[in-house]
Structures are given as structure tokens and as C-alpha cells.
Fold this sequence. Notes:
The structure holds three protein chains of three kinds.
Chain A (H helix, E strand, L loop, with lengths): L7 E6 H13 L8 E6 L8 H9 L3 E6 L10 H18 L7 E5 L5 H18 L4 H10 L1
Chain B lengths: L1 E4 L2 H5 L3 H14 L2 E4 L8 H7 L1 H17 L4 E3 L3 H16 L1 H11 L8 E3 L1 H10 L13 E4 L9 H4 L9 H8 L3 E2 L13 H4 L1 H17 L4 E4 L2 H9 L1 H8 L7 E3 H8 L43
Parallel strand pairs in B: 1-2, 1-3, 3-4, 5-6, 5-7, 7-8
Chain C lengths: L3 E6 L11 H9 L4 E7 L5 H13 L4 E6 L2 H14 L7 E5 L1 H5 L6 H19 L7 E4 L3 E5 L3 H12 L3 E5 L14 E2 L4 E2 H14 L3 E4 L2 E9 L2 E8 L14 H5 L5 E2 L8 E2 L2 E2 L11 E2 L5 H5 L4 H5 L12 E7 L1 E4 L3 E3 L16 E3 H8 L20 E8 L15 H15 L4 E6 L9 H10 L4 E4 L2 E7 L2 E8 L5 E7 L1 E6 L1 E3 L3 H7 L27 E3 L9 H19 L3 E4 L4 E3 L15 H5 L5 E7 L5 E8 L9 H5 L5 E3 L4 H9 L2
Parallel strand pairs in C: 1-2, 1-3, 3-4, 6-7, 6-18, 7-10, 18-29, 20-27, 21-22, 21-27, 22-23
Antiparallel strand pairs in C: 5-30, 8-9, 11-12, 12-17, 13-14, 15-16, 19-28, 24-25, 25-26, 31-34, 32-33
Amino acid sequence: MAEFEPKIVAFVCNWxxxxxxxxxxxxxxxYAHNVRMIRLPCTGRIDFMLxxxxxxxxxxxxxxxxxxxxxxxxxxxxxxARRRWILFRQLLDFxxxxxxxxxxxxxxxxxxxxxxxxxxxxxxxVRRLGPFQNYQQLARAGIE
Amino acid sequence: xxxxxxxxxSLQGSASEFDESLQAxxxxxxxxxxxxxxxxxCGASAAHNLNRLLALALPARTLALAERTGLAEVLxxxxxxxxxxxxxxxxxxxDEGLRRQVSEIIGMEYQGTARVLNILEVMGQIFQDGLKxxxxxxxxxxxxxxxxxxxxxxxxxxxxxxxxxxxTMDELMKKIGAKPIDWAFKVECCGAGFSISRTDLVAxxxxxxxxxxxxxxxxxxxxxxxxxxxxxxxxQEKAEKWAGRKYSMPVLYLTQAIGLALGLPEKKLALHQxxxxxxxxxxxxxxxxxxAETAPPPAGQSEE
Amino acid sequence: MSRIxxxxxxxxxxxxxxxxxxxxxEAANRIPGxxxxxxxxxxxxxxxxxxxxxxxxxxRLTGVVVAACSPRMHEPTFRRVCAESGLNPFLCExxxxxxxxxxxxxxxxxxxxxxxDLVRIMVEKxxxxxxxxxxxxxxxxxxxxxxxxxxxxxxxxxxxNAGYKVLLVERDPSIGGHMAQxxxxxxxLDCSQCILTPxxxxxxxxxxxxxxxxxxxxxxxxxxxxxxxxIRKKARGIDEKLCTGCGVCAQKCPLKKIPSEFNAAMxxxxxxxxxxxxxxxxKPVIDKKRxxxxxxxxxxxxxxxxxxxxxxxxxxxxxIEVETGAIVCTTGFEVLSTEFxxxxxxxxxxxxxxxxxxxxxxxxxxxxxxxxxxxxxxxxPETVVFIACAGSxxxxxxxxxxxxxxxxxxxxxxxxxxxxxxxxxxxxxYMDIRxxxxxxxxxxxxxxxxxxxxxxxxxxxxxxxQDGKLIVKGxxxxxxxxxxxxxxxxVVLATxxxxxxxxxxxxxxxxxxxxxxxxxAEAHPxxxxxxxxxxxxxxxxxxxxxxxxxxxxxxxxxxxSKVAALFSADELSREPVIAVVHRxxxxxxxxxxxxxxxxxxxxxxxxxxxxxxxxDGKLIKVVAKVNPGVxxxxxxxxxxxxxxxxDLxxxxxxxxxxxxxxx
Lengths: 144, 304, 663
């Protein structure tokens, strides 16, 4: 039985985490395959319905990562993201969603190693949790 | 005012004058002292030089006993005991694992609820409510208030007064009629525990303290620490030998000075137990005294 | 219908080594909408770029996806190729299969599969790209310079000489800043005022520069090229047009014992005063907080004495409104006072002074006319101890950085002292000697070898007064931490250089970020030192970090060149990745509901309100409108909008959803 490979979607900000991931690449630090990054100008751009869409689409885990508080290229975008995150997470938890599949991180453009660590630890955790089937089956049932 | 009381080893031994004078003034000041039952040695410098856990466990046990006895606040007159107890409280406050470990060692639960107070804080509280009518013989002498090294340091832990130029003792002495001088050795080291092993060092360091106090016209040095007292009083002769001059500087505990101001007899305040006789010059015109910088620190000075 | 071309780069072995190019090309071909899919060894090279050009022409591509390195690397390169071939550059995307794939995974099927995924995501985005065109914003060719020290003076002169107008605002009564207070400058020992005052005069006389002294910034609105600025011109109490600068008023003023700010409290001034004889403008100011007339309604000696009848006690503050295209912040620094040091007496001993105060003593136009004298009794000191790193490099004091100039000026002070008092003893307690500039190391050597200044490596734990002397207790670490005790007559502390007072409020007014020390933040510490993250606002000098005069002047000229570049065109071209509010035909006009959450959330105040009216002026609705000149394209408003009426061009909702669906 092949080991379950979780599918992770990461929403990252262009100025910090995307650049940090670039640094991971330049430093040739290896990390898990499972993540697919969606580049956005700022984590403030992230409509949190997108996260649900990702799960509906087949993601087993989602990462949102941006600049450290105070360092946002657009000064305040990541604060908005953080506020949304706090509410959204509580809401999802209340609705019975497994919030261990949702991760929020601050990875700066200089933190190549941290990005690799973040991805690896999320992949491991979601691998332990197993495939995220329930929601996907429901969502698909709705479509079909 | 009701407080827990931790005399510590020295107040029961070599510094009994401190304890006696404190007990003597307590009733007059409305202070009730409840000695912590079965208290143990705080460990002083011996424990923290040898073993960290021992250095934490000893004071923790005393504090745990205080908590058990229902004492929310504990007066610790000896500066060394005060330092050990408050440092222990600070360290255990921040580390839950350590707290559990120490509780296991002492066989009691340490909760960290008992507050540790030094003699200046307590006297300050009492004096704030006024000493009306209680001061019958104002202590009208120029004095050098010597805080020693442990009362105001480390500043982040103790958070008491200004670490380089403290003022609480000076204010207290003013309230009993004294004239505290502005001098440079308020918190300089007296030689501390080297009193026995390196008496020569104590002689040198203490002589500097005594010399500065004398130079600026003090007629007495006021202390709150048995170690300071030992080095400045008991070792004054050695200091005089090292410096090649006479100081004849009486060294009083704060409680003794307060006692005198309250009109209590000398014998009751154990002044006779000092090595340097406690006597003051006859009140003549301030003639050929060396630069008597008697100006107390100005109010409103920027705080640290 | 989309016609996307996919171009996979091998990047030598960097991508091809771990990703199977053939499989990626084949998979890309099968994505609906892709009509062309090739690979090549080096896409960014000329032949590689030609491949794209040819494909665009032959296959009539409507969009291009280059699967290669990070867009942060080569997006401009490939966008340029597209633009040159007639395709809107914003229809070109890059899939990052190098930094995010080939470089971080081993060679395996999973790696190739990931590369294919990444390509598909970008293809879906590219299919929904719309052409975007750079935004043109008009530029007002006037610069506002905040702060009239050497940085502000240099920047003003450079911008003015480039042919543009400058408004120089200074909050003190005269320009000149701290450089005017110095006696000599290192390493040449040039007289500071001699080299500065000609520039000050040039500023005052330059036809392109308008000088507002004793003035402060009240508010800033607007955006790059179009700032609307309000300046508060504080009331001097003098009619500047009538005042001749004769100085009789100060002579007659009965209050003569006010500590002079210019003399760093080493000397006194009157209530009506000109800060120093070479002040520009050379007009006095009335200190309202001390003047007897303002406090008690009496005196008026100056008014009676003034031959030009220029005194105006009732003069109000004036608010001036100006439009500027760029702002240069050159507000400078301050030094810590001796009160900051408990171990040196909490500022009480009069003979413990700061380096700046020593400058005033040494200055030929200072309160002692250049003679080094103890502030307590006016005697010449025979032993002077200089303490370097007073406050700097000290985490316990909360200042971890190095103030950069103190090693040099301490050496200078010690030298000046020895030049004036030949038989005197000068000691310097130091931690390290930082003398990295041109001729700097030689200068310090001179102090030690020629002028006999004694350098002791160690810190000073205490200084206290005794019998009119200062006892300095330090350590000599080169002798194994030997305690050193020196009886000094004067102690000079090289106190830390800190951000100027009011730096935080100013930074907030101009929307520039600052660090925990209140130094203003540059856009990039290495490559963009004079720009800020706010477009159109530049900075120079010590307001950004401790620095010496040559660097400050260099930065000021750099900032001026940025301003000149900005003003060189009549219009400013901006990246079109901005938000846009939905607009459509009447009667709907827009699905924007007018809740204006976007307005509140925008970190750049880029959202305005637009009134939609009928032909006869009746208001129909008020909707949000994005100012294309200010919007930075962060997208915070887009995520917030309940009606989804606002969208971010280049990262539209449609596009991002499509990317997620493609995962």
C-alpha cells in the first residue's frame, strides 16, 4: 500500500514567503514534494473562501504564509490576513472542520530554511491525519 | 500592620542587635511580626556557589512554610536573606518545571504567593501613615545611608529604588530628623563574605566607604545588612590600620536609629553590642569639618 | 479563445537535471488552451527569446507561460520580449519550476508531476489575464525637504540646481542643524561653521529654494507626484520683512539666563534671541515659554528698543498649503543627555558633559570662546577623561547599535584638548576603535602618537564627585582587567546618537515606517538606502541611522538624484497592478454597495469616494474609487469586499480561483 501523499496548497505573499521559497531553492534545501504555491501580492489579498475552495478541489492541507507582522510590503495587509485567520479558524472549528489541516505561518524573504521546515512539518502532520475525504466527497456529490 | 517575619541565621546570631532593635520598635510602630514556624537558613552565598537546586530549595521551603501559615507578606530584614528569597521567587515564578522540581525536593507545594519585603519597604509603608507625636528625640545628625550591594540589585528582579543612587533610606532618615548626606559610596561593595577569608580586602574596601562618609561630614553610617554592619563596624579597626587613620564612625542599624528617635533606651536597642562605640560629637558650630556636602539629593531627579 | 504558448527552460542542468522536460512539454500540450509547447536549454538567452518571438508570430499566441526560474528573476526579461513583439507584457506569466521545484526536490516522477502542476496553474491564470497598461500620473515639480541640517541643505541645493523648486522646512529658528554646533570636523579639523555657512547662505539666496524656518510639518495628504502639504509657520513674534537683524532687542532683553539650546546648555541666551551669529535667517525669535510679556503681560523692552519697529507680540501661527511632488526627510538626530546614565550620576555632576557640549566649549564662537573650562568653576581642567560608547552597544541600556561617529569625535576632542592645554592629561576609555573612513585611522593614530592621548581599553563602571574632582573607576582589559582609577577634572561622555525627538509623530504623518529606535526605515537596506516604502518619499542622513558628515552629504545628493529622476518627466508611469472598482452601465453603475470597508482597510489611503449623479446633478449613489496613482496593489480591499465589487488587476478573483482549481 503506497504511503499516502497529502496534497498541500500554499497561499503565499510575493514579497516575503515567495521570496523565501526562492531562497530555499537557491540554497538547494530539499523539502517535501507535496506543496503547490499560489502567488499573491499580499496575504491580505486572500479571500478566505479560497481556502475552502482548495479543500473542495482536493487539497488535504492548506498553508497561508506571509510577511512577519510589521514587515508587510504593503504595511498592513498581513494584519488583515491575521485577523481574518483568527476568526475563520474559530468558525471552521465550530463548524466541525478539522482545523489541524489549516496552517498559518510567517516566513520572511530571508528564511529559506524556515519555509522548508514549515512545509515538511505540515506535510508530516497532514500525512498522519490522512486524506481529507469527507468534505471532498460531499462537495463532489453536490456537483454531480 | 501584620507581617510574616523571617529573621534568618544572622539576626539570631552575630547580628542580634538588628533583631532586638526591630522587636523593640515594632510595638511603637504598630507592627506585628509573626515569625515563620520552622524556618530554615536561606543558604546565603554558600548554597548558590555550590548547587543551584539547593540554593532554590532552601528559600523556597521557608516561603512555602509562610504560605502554609497563611502569611501573604514576609519581612526579611537581612539583605542577603532578602536577596536569596526574592531571587528564588523570581526564578520559580518563570519556570513551572523548576517549581515542581523544587516542591518535590522540599516536600511541600510551593505556590509563589508569599511576597518578600525588605526593611526599607516596610518602614516606608509605616512612615507613610505618619509618625505624629512618636518622634520624641529627633535623630539630628548628619548620616551616611549605606545600602550595600544586595538591596537594590539586580534591578530587574528587585525593582526597588534607583540602583546607582537609591533614596528610600535617606527619605526615612529624614523623617526621623536626620540629615542624610549626599555621598558616593551608597552601593559600593564592603568586601562582603571575604570578612573571614580575606580580611585585608575587606579592610581596603570598607575603609573607602568609611573615609568617604567621614570626608563628607557624616557622624554615623546607617545600614540594613548584617554583613555590611560586620565589615564596617567589626572590621573598622582593621580598616583604620590599613588606611592609617582613625574613623571612629559609629555604624547603626536603621532600626536602632529609629528606636533612638522614638525615645527608646540604648540598652534596649543593643547599641552596646557594637565594637565601635556609638557616640556622637557634642553639638558645636560646624567649624573645621571637612567638606560637609550635606545637601540631600534634589527631588524630581530623573529616574532610571 | 485562448492561444497559450508554454516554453519550458532547461536552465542547463538546473531544471533538466531533476525534471523530465519531455514529459512536461507533452503534458502542457494537452492542457486546453495551449497551442504551442516547447522546451529549450536557456530560455533567457537570445536564441531562447527568439523562440518565443517566433512562436508568438507563427501561432498568434494570446498569452505566454515561461516555465523556468522565479519570476522575481526574469519576469521583466520575458515581459519585454512580449512587449517588443506586440503582445501586452501583462499577458506573460512565469511558472517557477526551478526555485520551487527542481532545486528543492530530487530527480523523480513526483518532481516532474509537480512541475506539470505548476505549469498548469500558471496556464489557467494566463488564460484569464487581461492586457494592462501603465498608469500615468502628473508630477508637481516641487520638492519638500524636511529638516535644515547638512543633509537637508545638500539635498535642497542639489534639487534646486537641477532646476526644480524646493521648499525647505526647519523647526528650529535657523538652519544648520548639529553641524553648525561643531567646532572642527574630522579628519581634516576644518572649522565646521566655515564650511557650512557658505552653503547655508547659498540656500537662503537660491532662487529655487523657499526657506521656512521655525516651521513644522502639519499634515501630508496625497501621493507621489501629488502631495498636498500643510506647514505650520510658528509665530516668531517678529515681522521678518521689517527686521534688519541688528540684535538690539536681544541686548535689551532683561532675561539673560536661559540655557541656550544651540550651546547645549553650556551657555545662556535671552528670551528674544538669534540662536547663533551666523544664523540663517539672521532674524530673532521670541521664546514664548519664557518671555515676560507672554507669561505676565509686562516688559516689552524689545519692542521699545527695536529701531525698525518689527516686534509683533500678537503674531499668530500661519498655516501654509503647498503642493509638492516629492518629500525628502532629513530630520537628523539627537544625542542622549548625561541624565541617561545612573552610574555617572544621573546627570547631576556639572563637570560630566556630552560630546556635543564639549564641541560648544571647544568652538571659537562658543560660550568660552574656545577655551576648555569646567562648567562648575570655570577652571581649566588638567585631566580630562573621555568615555566612548556611553549608551551605545549596550543592550542593558536598550541601545544595541553602534553610534558610528563617537570613536572619531572622541579622538578629535582629545586632540583639541591637548592642542589647547599642552600639559593636560587626556584619557580615552574605549571598547573598540571604529575608524573606517578615508583618513580616519590615520587621524586616530595621530591622536595617540603625536598628541599623547592615552587610550585605555575598558569600560568605566562609575564616576562620582569627590572634593571637587571626578573619580573615574574603570578597567584596563589589555592589562588583564586591572582596575584603573583616575582623578579627573572633566569627564566627556560620547553619548549615543538617537533619533530626533518627534521622529515617531513625523513618521506617522508621512506614512513611513520606523524601527524600535525610531530611525526611519529605508526600502531596502542594501540596494535602496535613500528610498522608503512610500513612493515619493525619500530620506537622507542620520534620521535613518547614525552616520557621519561625508556619508550624510552623499546620501542627501543620492536622494536629490532620485527626486530629479522623478521630476524628469511630466508624467509618472506606474505598474498597473492595482485595484479597480466594478463599473457598468446605468442603471446599476456599480455593484459596489458603498460600505467603504475598503477605504478603512487600505494601508495607503488609496480609496476615494465617487459620487455618481444624474445629468441634473441629483445624487444616485456614492461608490468607492481607487486612485490609480496611490494604489500599491496589495489586494486587501479585494478580500474584504462583501459585494466582490473591487478586484485586483493581474490577480483577479477569477484568476486566483482558476489557479486553485488547477491544483
